[in-house]
Amino acid sequence: MPFAQVHHRAVHYQWADHGQPHTLVFINSLGTDLRIWDEVVQRLGTSVNMLRYDKRGHGLSEGTPASQLATGTMDAFTDDLIGLLDVLGIDRCIPVGLSVGGRIALVLADKQPERVERLILCDTAHIIGTLQSWDERIRAVQTLGLEQLSGQVMERWFTPDFGQHNASTVAIFRRMLMACAPADYIRCCEAVRDADLTEQARRIGHPTRCIVGTGDVATPPALVRQLADLITGADYHELEGSGHLPCVDNPARLTTLIADFLHD
Fold it and tell me: TM spans, by residue (predicted)?
């Protein structure tokens, strides 16, 4: 089980070097870990090199000590990824970011454009939510805890139809959410709340593919379309019936969109 020391914290990752010319770096959403990409990775097989990792305080990655806690920023979460890429010697990659992971991908492309070959942005946007909505969520985590909020979060991740027919899968993801370190979950909320990435999106010069589920209530299609319109030359695709986690509820179609983009 591989771990890397990044900024004095243990980061859990999975690195599959298949000797291919392209390297995908999968970046998870808030409250999830690298397992969300399992079915996509399985379908891609050995056709591309792939890196997955858990953000700080998520999955098996070490959280931030209480003595070092500060307001979360997109730069801090992006620097964690940059540090991991440095440790592994990955000089060039294609970030595949979901939700907050897509925002990390955007900041990476803006900070180190030479490191990014192209971008795949899933169910994400330059602005997600409002100051009030994020403050309310942070207060709820502080007072109620993630377990009490998990039902509401599942309703934002999955469509009612998926939840009705895949109760066991939803239960797995509820446990995944509850395993997060609350302090680092809050830091991630703060990072999303405080960062307007409109200008970063406008500066992107990389080939970019934006993807969204038509049933996503967290980052609705209209919002993801706005992001695509900000990025010069970006294309836009909707996954019919998918929610906020298409890698879970429609991995076959998402894998096709990823694989096709590698060769466009």
Answer: none
Of the candidate CATH numbers 1.10.10.10, 3.40.50.300, 3.40.50.410, 3.40.50.1820, the domain formed by 3-262 belongs to 3.40.50.1820
Instruction: For 35-57, write each residue's pLDDT tens digit.
Output: 999 999 999 999 999 999 999 98
What does the domain layout of the chain look like in residue ranges?
Answer: 3-262
Residues pairing with 97 in the sheet = 27, 121
What predicted TM-score, i.e. pTM, was given to this entire model?
Answer: 0.96
| DSSP assignments along 208-262, one per residue | EEEEEETT-SSS-HHHHHHHHHHSTT-EEEEETT--S-HHHH-HHHHHHHHHHHH
CA distance 76 to 24: 21
Q: How far is C-alpha 114 from the chain's CA centre?
A: 21
